[in-house]
Specification:
The protein has 25 helices and five strands. By secondary structure, the protein is mainly alpha-helical. Strands 2-3-1-4-5 form a five-stranded parallel β-sheet. The radius of gyration is 24 Å and the shape is globular. 43% of the residues are buried.
Length: 527
C-alpha cells in the first residue's frame, strides 16, 4: 500500500473512532458505510460502523455489517465479540453467548469477551460463572484502561449480588485510576450510607465538583452528592444537586410527552371495543409485575422469587420488543411507536399470535426449571390488554405506592434507559404519572378480576397477610421464605438494589415530605 494510503487510512480510522467516542453515532455510521465500500478489508470500519448503528437502535443493520465482515474475517475476535454484544442488546442471549465463547476459544486471553461473557452470566443469574470470568479477565489485565473496565464490571457484580463492601473496593480502585471520573462515585453512593460530613467519599466528591466542567461527568456526581446529602439530612442541598443532575439528564434525553399521550390513547382506542373473550391458548405460568418505576416492583419480584417454584427473570424487554414488531416497527426506525399504533385500525387475534410466539421463543433462552417465571418490566403496564390476550393464564401484579413517594423516587434516581426520560423534569413526571394512572384505571375496568392491586404501604404494615394474599392470587402454595426477600440471593440490577437487601422497612413512606416545598408543582399536578 502506498504511504499516502496508509496515512489516509490512519486519519479516517481516527475520525470514525472519535465520532463514536463522542457519541456522534449517526455521523459515524454514515461515514463508516462509505469507508467500508472504499476499503472492504479494513476491519476497524466494520466494527465502528456496527457499534454506532447499534447505539442508535439499528440492530439489524449493525448485525448485517458484522456478518459481512465475518465472511471476510471468520476468526476475527473483535467482530465475534461485537456480534455477541449486539445480540445481547437484542435479548438474544443464547446467540450472544455462542459468539463470546467462540471468540474466547480462538483467544482465551481476550479480555473484552471475558468481561462481556461475565456480564451476560450475571444477567442470567449464573453467579459463579460470572465471577470466574470477571476475575480471570482481571488477572489478564495489563493496562489502566482495561483495569477500569474490569473493576467496574466487578463492582457491579458485587453490588448486584449484595456484597456492597466488596463492590465499593472495586469502585475505589477506579477512582484511583481515574481521579476525575464520576461514574464510580455514583455507584458507591448507591450502596454507601453517609453518616457524617467527615465521610471521606463525601469530602472527595465535594472537592471533585469544583474541578469538573463537562456536563456528562457532572451528572452522575450531582446524583451521588444528592444521595449523600439526603443521608446527612441536608435536604435543601440534596434537592439542589438533584435539580442540577436532572436538568442535565433532561437535556440529554429531550423527552416529549406527546408521543406517550398518543400511544396511550391509541391503546385505549384499540381495546375499548375489543372482545376480551378472544384469547390465544397458552399454558405458560408467567407473572407480570407492572407499575410505575420505583413503585415496589423489584421488592415484589424478590418476594415471589424467594418461592421454591418461582424463577425471577428480572426486567425483560421481550413483551415490548414483540409488540413493537407486531406494530410494524422497524428497529431503529425514526417513525415513533405512537405513530405506528395510530395506523392500526383494529386488533387481529391471529396477528397477535406472533407476539406470543416471539415472547415464548425468547423465554427459551433463559435457563430455569421452576414452574413459574416473573417478568418485572414496570412499563409493561402499557401492554396489559395484549398480555391477557396472548397469555390468558398469566398473572398480573400492579404495584401501587403513594403517588408522591413514587414520583419523588423517580426524580431522585438516574436511570440508564431513555424509556424513563419522563423522570428528569417534575412537570413531565407529573403529567406522565397522570397518563399512567388513567391507562391503568382503564385496564382495571376491563380486567377487573385479573389484575392484583398490590399496595406497598399495606405490605409494610401487614407483611405476612399481604404476602399470603399475593401468593394466593398467583396460585402459589405458602412458602415462609417469601417473608424474608432480603435473603434472596438472586442478583438485582435496578435502582432498588440496596433497599431490597434490607428487611422490609417503612422509612421510605412519606419520604417526599422532606422536600415538600420544592415538590409543590408536582403535587398540584398529580394530587
Amino acid at each position: 500500500m502506498k504511504q499516502v494510503d496508509k496515512e489516509y487510512l490512519k486519519k479516517q480510522s481516527s475520525i470514525i473512532i472519535t465520532l463514536y467516542n463522542t457519541k456522534k453515532y449517526e455521523k459515524a455510521a454514515e461515514k463508516g458505510k462509505v469507508l467500508i465500500k472504499k476499503f472492504p478489508n479494513q476491519i476497524v470500519f466494520y466494527n465502528a460502523t456496527a457499534l454506532s448503528l447499534s447505539a442508535i437502535g439499528k440492530y439489524d443493520e449493525a448485525l448485517g455489517i458484522l456478518k459481512s465482515a465475518l465472511l471476510r474475517f471468520p476468526n476475527n475476535i473483535f467482530v465475534l465479540n461485537n456480534l455477541g454484544l449486539i445480540n445481547s442488546n437484542m435479548g438474544k442471549t443464547k446467540l450472544s453467548r455462542e459468539y463470546y465463547e467462540k471468540a474466547i476459544s480462538i483467544n482465551n486471553k481476550f479480555i473484552d469477551a471475558l468481561v462481556n461473557l461475565g456480564n451476560l452470566d450475571l444477567k442470567e443469574n449464573k453467579i459463579e460463572d460470572s465471577k470466574e470470568n470477571l476475575y480471570r479477565a482481571l488477572s489478564l489485565s495489563n493496562s489502566p484502561q482495561t483495569d477500569v473496565v474490569i473493576n467496574n464490571a466487578l463492582g457491579m457484580f458485587h453490588q448486584q449480588t449484595g456484597n456492597f463492601k466488596e463492590s465499593i473496593k472495586h469502585f475505589q480502585i477506579i477512582n484511583k485510576l481515574d481521579p476525575l471520573g464520576t461514574t464510580a462515585d455514583k455507584s458507591i453512593s448507591t450502596v454507601h450510607k453517609y453518616n457524617s460530613e467527615d465521610d471521606q467519599h463525601y469530602i472527595s466528591m465535594k472537592k471533585k465538583i469544583t474541578l469538573i466542567k463537562e456536563k456528562g461527568s457532572l451528572k452522575p456526581l450531582y446524583f451521588a452528592l444528592a444521595k449523600a446529602s439526603e443521608d446527612l439530612k441536608k435536604y435543601k442541598e440534596s434537592f439542589k444537586y438533584l435539580a442540577l443532575g436532572n436538568s442535565i439528564a433532561d437535556q440529554e434525553v429531550n423527552y416529549k410527552i406527546d408521543q406517550d399521550q398518543d400511544l396511550f390513547n391509541s391503546i385505549k382506542r384499540l381495546f375499548k371495543n375489543f372482545d376480551i373473550n378472544q384469547k390465544i391458548d397458552s399454558n405458560k405460568k408467567i407473572i407480570f409485575i407492572v407499575g410505575m418505576p420505583r413503585s415496589s416492583t423489584t421488592l415484589v419480584e424478590q418476594i415471589l422469587s424467594s418461592h421454591s417454584d418461582v424463577y425471577g427473570a428480572g426486567e425483560l424487554s421481550f413483551m415490548s420488543d414483540a409488540i413493537e414488531n407486531f406494530s410494524g416497527m422497524e428497529i431503529g426506525s425514526k417513525i415513533s411507536l405512537s405513530d405506528k399504533f395510530k395506523e392500526i385500525k383494529e386488533l387481529d387475534v391471529e396477528k397477535l399470535r406472533n407476539i406470543q410466539l416471539e415472547y415464548t421463543e425468547k423465554l427459551k433462552t433463559l435457563n430455569f426449571n421452576e414452574q413459574f417465571i416473573t417478568d418485572k418490566a414496570p412499563l409493561n403496564f402499557r401492554w396489559i390488554g395484549f398480555i391477557k390476550t396472548v397469555f390468558p393464564n398469566s398473572k398480573i401484579i400492579h404495584c401501587n405506592r403513594d403517588p408522591m413517594d413514587t414520583c419523588y423516587s423517580n426524580f431522585k434516581n438516574s436511570f440508564g434507559a431513555n424509556s424513563l426520560g419522563f423522570s428528569y423534569d417534575l412537570k413531565k413526571l407529573g403529567n406522565y404519572y397522570n397518563l399512567y394512572r388513567d391507562l391503568t384505571n382503564f385496564w382495571r375496568n376491563i380486567y377487573t378480576n385479573d389484575i392484583y392491586q398490590f399496595s406497598y404501604e399495606k405490605l409494610v404494615n401487614e407483611k405476612e397477610n399481604e404476602v399470603k394474599k399475593l401468593l394466593n392470587f398467583c396460585g402459589l402454595k405458602w412458602d415462609k421464605n417469601c417473608l424474608e426477600p432480603h435473603k434472596n440471593t438472586k442478583s438485582v440490577a435496578t435502582a432498588s438494589l440496596s433497599q431490597v437487601r434490607s428487611p422490609i422497612y417503612n422509612s421510605s413512606i412519606n419520604n417526599w415530605k422532606n422536600h415538600e416545598t420544592e415538590l409543590e408543582e408536582l403535587k398540584k399536578i398529580i394530587l
